Amino acid sequence: MKKQGIWLLAAVMILIAVSPLHLTNEYLRSNTFDRVEIQQGEDIQSVARRYTRDETRVRELQQAIIDVNDLNPDGSGLRQGQELLIPLLQAPETQVAEK
């Protein structure tokens, strides 16, 4: 019984250690962020489009912005002047910042 508990604990520790490596959204693995202020009329999609033009990346970045900033699941409720953290990818050629 005690041996099973040790194996279970070891398995959980390994999963915790490697789980970020299994995320499919690269933005959620980022440790580099930009800070932006929401302008009147902006939404999550328009903010994401500042950083990439690739449609798949736009959707991934939108979800990452929502997750990182603990926003409503649909990204609604942004206020003018609100600051958001935007996760950045390491490869600069995949991003287009149009601040």
Automatic annotation (TrEMBL):
Lineage top rank: taxon: Bacteria
InterPro entries noted in UniProt: LysM_dom_sf
Protein name (Swiss-Prot/TrEMBL): LysM peptidoglycan-binding domain-containing protein
The species this protein was found in: Selenomonas montiformis
